[in-house]
Amino acid sequence: MKTFLTIFTPTYNRAYILPKLYESLKTQTNKNFVWHIVDDGSSDETKMLVQNFQNEDQIEIQYFFQENMGKHFAVNQGLKKTETEFFCVIDSDDYLAENAVEEMESLSHKIKKNDQIAGFTFIRFSEKINYDKAKYGKNEWISSRRINYEWEFPGEMIFCIKTNVHQQFYFPEFEGEKFCPESLILRRIERQFKILVTDKVLAFGDYLEDGLMNNYYQLLLKSPKSSLLNIKERFQDEISPEEKSNLVKTYWDIASKTKQPFFTKFFGINPFLILNFLINKKLKHQ
């Protein structure tokens, strides 16, 4: 049987938690996937650990090492090497339900012949949540443009995208910047393609203290070109006046603190919104 899926995991110094994901992959009811790992310059025992996984010969594992450049660089490298029909990023601090791949293959059959649909989604919940399984896994719908959803419990969607579609949307790579929001690429995909959205709960995990999300705003400041580009991208969505105001404030704050050129600060997004923000800011301090 031809392998249909690449489960892609970018990792950095996560040898202490990778076994949890590996164990969940070993016990999948459907083994029709390859686990592709890009090690983003780890200095711990990651390489040796993965070699031990490979020696067990339980699942197909591909391992690549790169100098520390950031998750989005790793994803780009993974995409370039992917040959399967579908590509799904599962982070090193997550793990899958034992029927995850089986469900993913079933979903893939529903959309693989439809060129207008880029991929499908499923839910990642905190492993600490004791959710009612009877309430989830029943709903599917086709979404155009940005996906609107509201789960009963805190959670996020994981996207599984057709590889030939995702390979049209690589992350921008700015020298010296090690972070780029994933939503930047997902927005671009969603503007041109439809997505099959589901409420299937197939992944679990929690943000760790050494994870990206716990230092999110500092990451934005350290990668200003990517961060400002992502805000510009969000202005192409249908957003409320309040969200637009918050985005203008964030844009100006990042551009100012990172000493961006005058043109970038004032004309990167709508200059009238920037001017209005500065006037209101001045009035508040009078």
From TrEMBL:
Recorded source organism is: Epilithonimonas zeae
- Carries keyword Transferase? yes
Query: Which key words tag this protein in UniProt?
Result: Transferase
Q: Which residues form the Glycosyltransferase 2-like domain?
A: 6-137
Which molecular-function annotations from GO does this UniProt entry contain? hexosyltransferase activity
Its lineage opens with:
Bacteria, Pseudomonadati, Bacteroidota, Flavobacteriia, Flavobacteriales
Q: What is this protein called?
A: Glycosyl transferase family 2
Query: What parts of the sequence cross the membrane?
Result: none
